[in-house]
Amino acid sequence: MAAPHQYHQPNAPDDSDSDLELDLDELDPIAASSSAAPPSRRQSKEKRRPYHELGARIPLRNLRVGRLRASPRPQEAEDEDLRGLMEDSEGANRNSAGSYGQSGDDDAPLLPSHNVRRRHQRAPNTLSRLQSSLRLPSFLSGSGQNTPAIQLGEHPDGESDAEEEHDPTSQRTISVGQLQTARFPPNAVSNAKYTPWSFLPRTLYNEFSFFINMYFLLVALSQIIPALRIGYLSTYIAPLAFVISVTLGKEALDDIARRRRDAEANSEGYTVLKFEENSVGNGVAPGKSSDRKRRAKKRRNGGRLTDIEDEEAAVSTTKGLSTANFWEVVKPSRSLKVGDVVKLGKDQRVPADMVILKSYSQDSTPPVSAKSGAGDNSPTLVDGETNAPDVPFDNPAKNNSSAGAGASGEAFIRTDQLDGETDWKLRLTSPLTQNLNVGEYTRLRVIAGKPDKKVNEFYGTVELQPKRQRNYDPHEEEESSTAQEQSAPLSIDNTVWANTVLASSCNVLAVVVYTGPQTRQALSTSPSRSKTGLLEYEINALTKFLCVFTLTLSFVLVAMAKFRVIEGREWYVSMFRFLILFSTIVPVGLRVNLDMGKTVYAWFIEHDQSIAGTVVRTSTIPEDLGRIEYLLSDKTGTLTQNEMEMKKIHVGTVSYAGEAMDEVSSYVRQCFSTPAGEAPSLFTPSSAYVAPSTSATRTRREIGSRVRDVVLALALCHNVTPTTEEENGEMVTAYQASSPDEIAIVRWTEMVGLKLFQRDRESMTLQSCETGNVVVRVRILNVFPFTSEGKRMGIVVKFYHGPQSSPSDEDGEIWFYQKGADTVMTTIVAANDWLDEETANMAREGLRTLVVGRKKLSAQTYQDFSTKHAQASLALHNRDNALADVVKEYLEHDLELLGVTGVEDKLQKDVKPSLELLRNAGIKIWMLTGDKVETARCVAVSSKLVSRGQYVHTISKMKRKDLAHDSLDFLRGKTDACLLIDGESLALMLTHYREQFISIAVLLPAVVACRCSPTQKADVAKLIREYTKKRVCCIGDGGNDVSMIQAADVGVGIVGKEGRQASLAADFSIEQFCYLVKLLVWHGRNSYKRSAKLSQFVIHRGLIISICQTVYSIASSLEPKALYRDWLLVGYSTVYTMAPVFSLVLDRDVDESVANLYPELYAELKSGRSLSYKSFFIWVLVSIYQGSMIQGLSQLLVGVGDGSGDATFMRMVSVSFTVLVMNELIMVAMEVTTWHWIMAVSIVGTAGIYFGSVPFLGGYFDLTYFSSLAFWWKFAVVASVSLVPPYAGKILGRTLRPPSYRKVRGV
């Protein structure tokens, strides 16, 4: 097992002779020491340095050291001169904060001039000086000021970009808190698809890649040629321009909305430290100019300067003057630059990839610098306490804060938005930067590698440059020449990546290393792409057929004319004119209708109150929601809430869950209560179990004893640290640990009555929740942390015993506690007959099981173990194995089995019924997560992704190709199994057996992939899309899901707790997973069905008028003359038919309740029958029939005429065009399944508009004939022949083969 976890080092015990001899330099939190300070700086009054030694430093610092204000003793003459010089300066330059300012100019006199106003003040006493020394800087306080400060320097914001762009393929050297020598990309998040200059080229390319648009572009351009011109030029150009404008406008609005959302994320404010280097060579601090600027900043902001600045102005923490002054400003996320030092607080999102420099607790701020070599930076001088082991423990709250994360350079972060893992990660600061005064940060240089997408890897170095001295004295110059550059390595443990969240109750100072597109998050994210719906591709294919049909028709007509010259035109010119006349067969208005339909669907989705908060970010693909066949889901935050709760505990003979936990509480209360009249004493595992007289049965005593043992074991065996936080004005205890499981268990022990009160590296204290007394105290001897290989966690503790007021750990009991996965603990615990059965029962419920055991160690056994363990830890080869062998030999065998715990990862609301309904709808569900195999298995079971009794085939840590082949062969013969595979094995499969693996995996009902990187998730989505050609939907909530979401045909993002990266990058944003069901089964189904019906009607509308034109051309000697000209042609496809046809977007075949009750209705859509070649050809035949009947009968009943202007021709046009319009309106009414009032209004209203416009159509119609009886009976006959047969055929088809929706409606 790994080496024991290192907790915070306590302060070393104070062995000084007398506390009265404290030097104020030591008390001052700023003037603690430099990194090269000697081990002890405490000096007695007799050992203080003579004045001539200090004299060399007069120009270099503003002296405020207490010893200089002591009563003068006899000294040499030069000492007297120096004292006079200092005291004079002191009186002249004393400022309001108790620090001293001096001139900032090199030629300024050392002594003040006569015209300086003196401010006489009473000399401060020792106590006030002590308070001044211990004043805490506001920069390090929990409530830092967020007011922006005056920017110093020539540039308006104090910064200027370097001219040279940094090469991203090379390593970078970063000057902390300063301007960089190279320029790095801005720290801006961008989910936009287009830039202002790429918008038109890309959108126009996308539009004209559709055949229908290219076809109409060529038709429109043909009108420039005089021989091919038919009617007005605008007749052909205007519709195309309108279509393109609508589509481009929608794309532009979508992208503008994305940019606005990005701007919100990029404007989030962060506290940044601004540094101003003290002037080099002037030897004074701060200079007159900088002092004036600081005062001006104070006046402008209406507040006082931070205490730390006044302290820094007066006293240096290292020899000489502090390198830089600093103050806080608030910067938006997009303005953060490489090298900026950012201050982060609890639950704050990390805006860029950073390296941690310093960590400190919020409730008790540490000194600005700490003594070099001290492992702890806890504020002992402020609290008046020390962390020595012999502190009286009856009130450990006093020294509790020093054990909080951050006191020794530790911080926990949540990375579930980056890699999907639920466990918190421990991050550490480098000792070189943790113990460094913040004013010296400008001396730091961070060397980092080139930007990389590997989130678990980082190699770098931090260097501390030698201090630049202001040399006024030759002795100082000699001394400074010996200073050397210091460096320390940096690893992944010292980093926080963008979009992780600081989880622990501490503040962190971190320097920005990578920004914007160079962060790990951005490099793992695929670029945005324009998505096109499957329906559009299908319609594109159909329009190609229509174009071929048009070409064939034109050629046939020319051939029927025997390729003769007509009106001086060659046959090929006549053929092109026919092509233009028949251009309405390929309907240019189809794209407009569909695009406007998509807008309506998006409006329906966003205004559905049952899925409130849903946002449609890509409005071009709502129909694809109705065609999903594969759903790829993230786990953490999507299916689960990432909130753990202890649900069940089994102690061998009895199991407790739910309300039965009250019984556990009563046992704990009895066990840890002191009998009346006795002094409170500490409990150990061997303490007698005191059973109340009411439960005298032996069984209850045994059970009570077992419950006490298992609760005590769970309260001690963990890596959790308690911290105190203020919430709503009340102090509450919060817990910090790398695993949420451990926190859930510790919360449960608190709930049943045993609270973790205090924890540091050496000891742990438990408190009774009922009495508030400390009941258990242990000394921590060894900790064996959890590893993914070991799957267990152990701790060796020594119990204190005796009265609570004077405990002792001499001859204390030593116990080894361990908890872990049942797979490894089965062989470690003593033989039993119930463990396997109980763990299997809990696993079936989807609970995460942990087996708890213990073992008592004699003092001799522990001594032997400790010796062997120490020897093994020094081994140069196979150290981990050697340590594990020692632990196994002495500790990990024959443990007493105490119990089994079951922890539940709370599922999101209604996840189980949602997954079941989606499965019944024919959707295959894959779960892709970055979490552990065991965790993924539990969630797959608890969420019912894997049905009860279904076989789960697990492939993990596979490294050999032959084993992969065997697994594939097994799955090929068992396609009803669920596949559980980890990232390593998945990579092997995709590398060597890509085709075979995906061909089998897509057949399985469920696949769970764990330990997946963001790139792997995206690769899986692309692979399924490419192999199956089916629609893939990906849903996630974290930044690690963005690549997968963008790779999918339909990306759905959930607005997560930790951020909105996924929802911003997605096509559809929802607030809960269960909303997905309605989005797909209701809105997706309706969108697809409506668009399919709409597109068929638009094609029918264009085809029928072209058939009329064909029949007329045949009757008019095969000449390419127009039947309907100009306004009739434009009005037919717009004013006279558009509203009724478009109203079909309001139609629905079933109600929402029926759609949810019969998810199989959704499964039908996968076949695409609503818009198939079969349905298309049926509509083509109907169009040919109706067009032939309308035009043929009109010509038969009225006559053909000689063309434009002829009375017979105008009468024939009056009949055929009127029947054509009314035919279309009645066909719409025949297709409606569920009437909406807008549909009725649009049909009746359009008919009224048409007949109302007839008086204005005298140029096309014979108006006198229009009002005659002959017109109306001919109109009725033609319309009847056109409409009755198709309607009869439809009724017959419904009767013989009723569609599914009619079956479930019972119609």
Automatic annotation (TrEMBL):
Residues 1-130, 145-172, 281-307, 361-410, 465-488 are annotated as: Disordered. It is a multi-pass membrane protein. Residues 1064-1298 form the P-type ATPase C-terminal domain. It is found in: Endosome membrane; Membrane. Residues 181-233 form the P-type ATPase N-terminal domain. The chain crosses the membrane at residues 545-565, 571-590, 1127-1146, 1176-1197, 1209-1230, 1237-1258, 1270-1288. Residues 291-302 have a biased composition (Basic residues). Its EC number is 7.6.2.1. It is an enzyme of class 7 (translocase). Signal peptide: none annotated. It comes from the Eukaryota. The active site is at D634 (4-aspartylphosphate intermediate). It catalyses: ATP + H2O + phospholipidSide 1 = ADP + phosphate + phospholipidSide 2; a 1,2-diacyl-sn-glycero-3-phosphoethanolamine(out) + ATP + H2O = a 1,2-diacyl-sn-glycero-3-phosphoethanolamine(in) + ADP + phosphate + H(+). InterPro entries: ATPase_P-typ_cyto_dom_N, ATPase_P-typ_P_site, ATPase_P-typ_TM_dom_sf, ATPase_P-typ_transduc_dom_A_sf, HAD-like_sf, HAD_sf, P-type_ATPase_IV, P-type_ATPase_N. GO terms for biological process: endocytosis; phospholipid translocation; retrograde vesicle-mediated transport, Golgi to endoplasmic reticulum. PANTHER family: PHOSPHOLIPID-TRANSPORTING ATPASE, PROBABLE PHOSPHOLIPID-TRANSPORTING ATPASE. This is Phospholipid-transporting ATPase. It comes from Lophiostoma macrostomum CBS 122681.
